[in-house]
Specification:
CATH architecture of the largest domain: 2-Layer Sandwich
Number of helices: 7
Order of helices and strands: HEHEEEHEEEEHEEHEHEH
Helix content: 25-40%
Mean pLDDT: 94
Number of domains: 2
Strand content: 25-35%
Number of strands: 12
CATH topology of the largest domain: Alpha-Beta Plaits
Low-confidence stretches: none
Distance between the termini: 41 Å
Largest sheet: 5 strands, mixed
Length: 256
């Protein structure tokens, strides 16, 4: 659901895109080509990423409650400023990524101050935490560290803390035979390549629960994605579709 409580299903129904046919049916395999959405391929001068799977993702919703009060009349030592507390918490979350480097990633992407005004000490702040790692056991440890470190900050500042899981996506290895089909296609074409784990969630990761899947990555200019400047080079697109076509043909021949 989004911030207004609207689910994907609700939105599909409202816009008329939900479709009429039931889900399911026989699918032999699913192959997906996509931009990397990051800078690794470009930095390594590789035109193809052979994707071995998707990393674990864990989203948390954090609520920090202090006491709203007048900014001009409340002495600093007597304040329970939720936003100053959250500032310390965000620093701790950033530092956590260092402890789980290089695969651990942490992001605070949304933050809201309830009933904010210029001359009011923030009494309630909500923010989101995005945790990512290649391994499930590592991301579990990351979440526990988030809980421990944020609680210590809250206790030290007299704040109430609530952390609620929002979404969990476990690490998802792709089908070995489908990945091998992609690898063989790249080898035969002779394109510059490397193995890579998907840092983003993709259709292939969801479909991996239902059928064998694999992915082909190509670079994006400057590693940019979720940005209006997102772009690709035509030659990278051509090589990526070459690999996709040959991998699909190899799988189709095997399925016959």
């Amino acid at each position: 659901r989004d911030v207004d409580g609207i689910s994907v299903a609700d939105a599909l129904q409202r816009t008329g895109y939900a479709g009429e046919r039931p889900l399911g049916g026989a699918v032999d395999a699913y192959f997906e080509a996509h931009i990397e959405q990051g800078p690794i391929l470009e930095d390594n001068a590789k035109s193809i990423g052979v994707v071995s799977g998707g990393q674990a993702i864990r989203w948390l919703d954090v609520r920090v409650e202090g006491m709203a009060a007048h900014a001009g009349t409340t002495p600093m030592p007597l304040r329970k400023d939720a936003l100053y507390g959250v500032a310390r918490m965000i620093q701790a979350i950033e530092g956590l990524a260092t402890d789980f480097a290089p695969e651990g990633l942490t992001t605070v992407g949304e933050l809201s101050i309830n009933k904010s005004s210029r001359n009011t000490i923030p009494g309630l702040v909500n923010f989101t935490v995005d945790l990512r790692h290649h391994r499930d056991e590592a991301i579990e440890a990351m979440e526990q560290q988030v809980r421990t470190r944020l609680q210590a900050i809250a206790d030290g500042r007299g704040l109430n803390l609530t952390i609620t899981p929002h979404w969990i996506s476990p690490a998802t290895p792709f089908d070995a035979e489908c990945v091998a089909a992609v690898q063989h296609a790249v080898d035969a074409l002779g394109y510059a390549q490397q193995s890579i784990v998907s840092g983003a969630g993709h259709d292939a990761i969801h479909l991996a629960r239902f059928c064998p899947t694999a992915m082909v990555f190509i670079p994006c200019v400057g590693g940019l994605s979720h940005n209006e400047a997102e772009d690709v080079l035509p030659e990278d697109v051509r090589q990526g579709t070459d690999v996709l076509l040959n991998a699909v043909l190899a799988r189709a021949e095997k399925a016959e």
